[in-house]
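From the shared-data thread, chain only:
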Amino acid sequence: MSTGTVKWFNATKGFGFIQPDDGSADVFVHISAVERAGMRDIVEGQKLGYEMVRDNKSG
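Structure, as tokens:
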């Protein structure tokens, strides 16, 4: 599992980005993934663990 910090998240639009702790490229996050993890929302600056999954539609 990777760890990172929420760079920004727009709850109205339902997406944002996580800045990985290892310095790699920012990771897109959608509200559906947040909800599947059992959370209601995430906020800027929040530390979290995550697993990257490739989206079959967009790659």
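The chain has one domain: 2-50.
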